[in-house]
Each structure stands twice: as C-alpha cells, then as structure tokens.
Amino acid sequence: MFLARVEGNLVATRKHPSFEGWRLVICQPIDNSGTAEGTPQIAIDPHGAGLHQRVIISSDGLAARKAVGDDKSPARWMVLGIVDEKEPGVPV
C-alpha cells in the first residue's frame, strides 16, 4: 500500500472490457510530507476521489481483478480509501 495524490482522470476511447464503468485515476505516490516519490500509477477508483486528494492505493492485482469481476483483467492498482486526516483531529 502507498500514500498517493490524485493527479487527474484517465480517459480512454478503447479499454479492456473489465474497466467498463470504472473510473480510472492517475495517482502520484508521495511521502508523508507530500513530496512525489516514484512514477505515477493508474488505479481504478471505486470511491470517487477528487483532484489532489490524498488516497491509499494498493498494487494487489488479485483484489483489483476481483473488484472488476474478471480474473483475466489487466487491473493491478486500486484506490483503497481517501485520506481525510494526517492524524486524529488534524485534517489533510
């Protein structure tokens, strides 16, 4: 699992059938201070995260494929949740 920031949406005129109806977002992995780390990843987003929101993403491809309902899906990354506090009582 990684902390990441949503950098935008992905629009595709052609995509794998398992992605039909799923929102795809570009997620930039970040450290605790918000500095970018590594390369951006494309993730399916079942939560509706907004632009520049901090999210938790997972590279567990099995969970992503189960979420889209296709064992042969190329899905790998998935947004697990939206971060609303750095610590209890301290908003992001």
Quick overview:
The chain is built from 1 helix and 7 strands. It has one helix spanning 61-68, and strands at residues 2-9, 24-29, 41-44, 54-58, 77-82, 85-87, 90-91.
Would you mind describing this structure in some detail?
The protein is mainly β. It is 9% helix and 37% strand. It has one helix at 61-68, and strands spanning 2-9, 24-29, 41-44, 54-58, 77-82, 85-87, 90-91. The radius of gyration is 13 Å and the shape is elongated.
**CA radius of gyration:** 13 Å
C-alpha geometry = elongated
- Main sheet characteristics: 5 strands, mixed, barrel
Helix content: under 10%
Give me the strand/helix succession: EEEEHEEE
Ends distance: 19 Å
Q: What structural category arises from helix and sheet content?
A: mainly beta
Strands of the biggest beta sheet: in what spatial order? Answer: 1-2-3-5-4
Relative strand content: 35-45%
Any low-confidence stretches, pLDDT <50, length ≥5? Answer: none
Number of helices: 1
The total beta strand count reads: 7
Mean of residue pLDDT values: 93
Task: Pick out its properties.
92 residues, mainly beta, five-stranded mixed beta barrel, two-stranded antiparallel ribbon
What's the helix and strand layout?
Blueprint (H helix, E strand, L loop, with lengths): L1 E8 L14 E6 L11 E4 L9 E5 L2 H8 L8 E6 L2 E3 L2 E2 L1
Parallel strand pairs: 3-5
Antiparallel strand pairs: 1-2, 1-4, 2-3, 4-5, 6-7
